Amino acid sequence: MAATGQPELRGPWSAEMVRAHLDTSVIPLRIGVESGTGWPLVLSVWFVADGFELLGATRPTSTLVRCLERRPRCGFEVASDTPPYAGVRGRAHVELDAASGAPVLDRLLVRYLGSVDTPLGRRLRADAADEVCFRLRPVSITSWDFRRRMASSLSGAGEADPRH
After folding, report:
1. What is the pLDDT of residues 3-25, one digit of tens each?
2. Which residues contact residue 43 at a Cβ distance below 8 angstroms, ignoring those fewer than 6 apart?
3. 8-145: CATH, from 2.30.110.10, 1.20.1300.10, 2.70.150.10, 3.40.50.1010
Protein backbone atom coordinates (compact mmCIF):
# COMPACT_ATOMS: atom_id res chain seq x y z
CA MET A 1 0.00 0.00 0.00
CA ALA A 2 1.30 3.45 -0.85
CA ALA A 3 2.16 5.96 1.87
CA THR A 4 -1.19 7.67 1.27
CA GLY A 5 -3.07 4.54 2.29
CA GLN A 6 -4.18 4.01 -1.29
CA PRO A 7 -3.30 0.68 -2.90
CA GLU A 8 -1.14 0.54 -5.99
CA LEU A 9 -3.55 0.88 -8.94
CA ARG A 10 -3.05 -0.60 -12.39
CA GLY A 11 -5.27 -0.80 -15.44
CA PRO A 12 -7.50 1.60 -17.35
CA TRP A 13 -9.63 2.92 -14.47
CA SER A 14 -8.86 5.89 -12.27
CA ALA A 15 -9.06 5.65 -8.49
CA GLU A 16 -12.55 7.19 -8.64
CA MET A 17 -13.70 4.61 -11.19
CA VAL A 18 -12.40 1.74 -9.06
CA ARG A 19 -14.20 3.09 -5.98
CA ALA A 20 -17.41 3.61 -8.01
CA HIS A 21 -17.24 0.01 -9.23
CA LEU A 22 -16.79 -1.29 -5.69
CA ASP A 23 -19.61 0.92 -4.36
CA THR A 24 -22.15 0.02 -7.07
CA SER A 25 -21.42 -3.64 -7.85
CA VAL A 26 -23.94 -5.66 -5.88
CA ILE A 27 -22.38 -9.00 -6.73
CA PRO A 28 -20.34 -11.35 -4.56
CA LEU A 29 -16.67 -10.75 -3.98
CA ARG A 30 -14.50 -13.73 -4.90
CA ILE A 31 -11.81 -14.19 -2.29
CA GLY A 32 -8.90 -16.58 -2.71
CA VAL A 33 -7.14 -17.85 0.40
CA GLU A 34 -4.73 -20.63 1.28
CA SER A 35 -6.59 -23.63 2.72
CA GLY A 36 -5.37 -25.71 5.63
CA THR A 37 -3.95 -28.24 3.15
CA GLY A 38 -2.01 -25.54 1.32
CA TRP A 39 -4.26 -25.61 -1.75
CA PRO A 40 -5.88 -22.39 -2.99
CA LEU A 41 -9.51 -21.97 -2.00
CA VAL A 42 -11.88 -19.50 -3.68
CA LEU A 43 -15.09 -18.43 -1.95
CA SER A 44 -17.84 -16.04 -3.00
CA VAL A 45 -18.97 -13.68 -0.24
CA TRP A 46 -21.07 -10.56 0.14
CA PHE A 47 -19.08 -7.37 0.64
CA VAL A 48 -19.48 -3.67 1.20
CA ALA A 49 -16.83 -1.13 0.25
CA ASP A 50 -15.32 1.41 2.61
CA GLY A 51 -13.18 3.42 0.23
CA PHE A 52 -10.78 0.87 -1.22
CA GLU A 53 -11.26 -1.49 1.71
CA LEU A 54 -13.74 -4.35 1.39
CA LEU A 55 -15.69 -5.65 4.38
CA GLY A 56 -17.67 -8.82 4.90
CA ALA A 57 -19.07 -10.86 7.76
CA THR A 58 -19.06 -14.57 8.45
CA ARG A 59 -19.32 -17.08 11.27
CA PRO A 60 -16.28 -17.46 13.54
CA THR A 61 -16.20 -21.19 12.75
CA SER A 62 -16.23 -20.70 8.97
CA THR A 63 -13.57 -22.10 6.68
CA LEU A 64 -12.77 -18.53 5.61
CA VAL A 65 -12.02 -17.41 9.17
CA ARG A 66 -9.87 -20.48 9.82
CA CYS A 67 -7.86 -19.82 6.65
CA LEU A 68 -7.43 -16.12 7.43
CA GLU A 69 -6.37 -16.81 11.00
CA ARG A 70 -3.52 -18.95 9.62
CA ARG A 71 -2.56 -16.59 6.82
CA PRO A 72 -4.20 -13.12 6.84
CA ARG A 73 -3.85 -12.28 3.18
CA CYS A 74 -5.80 -13.02 0.04
CA GLY A 75 -6.43 -12.45 -3.62
CA PHE A 76 -9.81 -11.04 -4.61
CA GLU A 77 -12.00 -10.15 -7.58
CA VAL A 78 -15.16 -8.10 -8.05
CA ALA A 79 -16.40 -8.76 -11.58
CA SER A 80 -19.55 -9.95 -13.25
CA ASP A 81 -19.77 -13.31 -14.98
CA THR A 82 -21.83 -11.73 -17.75
CA PRO A 83 -20.21 -10.22 -20.84
CA PRO A 84 -19.02 -7.68 -21.62
CA TYR A 85 -16.43 -8.18 -18.93
CA ALA A 86 -15.08 -5.49 -16.62
CA GLY A 87 -13.96 -5.45 -13.01
CA VAL A 88 -11.14 -5.35 -10.51
CA ARG A 89 -8.88 -7.88 -8.88
CA GLY A 90 -6.11 -7.52 -6.37
CA ARG A 91 -4.16 -8.64 -3.35
CA ALA A 92 -4.91 -7.65 0.22
CA HIS A 93 -3.97 -8.04 3.84
CA VAL A 94 -6.98 -9.10 5.90
CA GLU A 95 -7.96 -8.15 9.44
CA LEU A 96 -10.53 -10.06 11.48
CA ASP A 97 -12.68 -8.10 13.93
CA ALA A 98 -15.33 -9.85 16.02
CA ALA A 99 -16.65 -6.58 17.47
CA SER A 100 -17.67 -5.25 14.04
CA GLY A 101 -19.33 -8.41 12.73
CA ALA A 102 -22.97 -7.54 13.58
CA PRO A 103 -22.95 -3.97 12.20
CA VAL A 104 -21.25 -5.14 8.99
CA LEU A 105 -23.81 -7.95 8.66
CA ASP A 106 -26.60 -5.35 8.78
CA ARG A 107 -24.89 -3.30 6.05
CA LEU A 108 -24.57 -6.44 3.91
CA LEU A 109 -28.24 -7.36 4.36
CA VAL A 110 -29.38 -3.90 3.30
CA ARG A 111 -27.00 -3.91 0.31
CA TYR A 112 -27.92 -7.37 -1.01
CA LEU A 113 -31.50 -7.88 0.22
CA GLY A 114 -32.70 -4.28 0.54
CA SER A 115 -33.55 -4.69 4.24
CA VAL A 116 -32.52 -6.46 7.41
CA ASP A 117 -36.18 -7.47 7.82
CA THR A 118 -36.41 -10.43 5.44
CA PRO A 119 -36.65 -14.12 6.31
CA LEU A 120 -32.95 -14.59 5.56
CA GLY A 121 -32.04 -11.35 7.31
CA ARG A 122 -33.91 -12.34 10.47
CA ARG A 123 -32.28 -15.78 10.45
CA LEU A 124 -28.76 -14.38 10.03
CA ARG A 125 -29.31 -11.62 12.59
CA ALA A 126 -30.47 -14.15 15.20
CA ASP A 127 -26.79 -15.06 15.69
CA ALA A 128 -25.31 -11.70 14.68
CA ALA A 129 -23.46 -11.30 17.98
CA ASP A 130 -21.17 -14.12 16.86
CA GLU A 131 -20.42 -12.73 13.39
CA VAL A 132 -16.83 -11.83 12.55
CA CYS A 133 -15.98 -8.94 10.24
CA PHE A 134 -13.20 -9.50 7.73
CA ARG A 135 -11.64 -6.35 6.30
CA LEU A 136 -9.57 -6.54 3.13
CA ARG A 137 -6.92 -3.80 2.98
CA PRO A 138 -5.75 -3.96 -0.63
CA VAL A 139 -2.07 -3.65 -1.43
CA SER A 140 -2.75 -3.60 -5.17
CA ILE A 141 -5.80 -3.38 -7.41
CA THR A 142 -5.87 -4.02 -11.16
CA SER A 143 -8.85 -2.98 -13.26
CA TRP A 144 -9.85 -4.27 -16.67
CA ASP A 145 -12.61 -3.25 -19.04
CA PHE A 146 -13.44 -5.18 -22.21
CA ARG A 147 -16.81 -3.52 -22.85
CA ARG A 148 -15.74 -1.52 -25.90
CA ARG A 149 -13.75 -4.41 -27.35
CA MET A 150 -16.69 -6.80 -26.94
CA ALA A 151 -19.47 -4.37 -27.90
CA SER A 152 -19.60 -5.29 -31.58
CA SER A 153 -19.76 -9.02 -30.88
CA LEU A 154 -22.63 -8.82 -28.38
CA SER A 155 -26.12 -8.10 -29.61
CA GLY A 156 -27.64 -5.33 -27.53
CA ALA A 157 -24.87 -5.53 -24.93
CA GLY A 158 -21.71 -3.59 -24.65
CA GLU A 159 -23.15 -0.18 -23.98
CA ALA A 160 -20.42 1.69 -22.21
CA ASP A 161 -21.22 2.40 -18.58
CA PRO A 162 -21.07 6.17 -18.15
CA ARG A 163 -19.16 5.73 -14.87
CA HIS A 164 -16.19 4.29 -16.77
Report:
1. 457 899 999 999 999 999 999 99
2. 30, 31, 33, 63, 64
3. 2.30.110.10
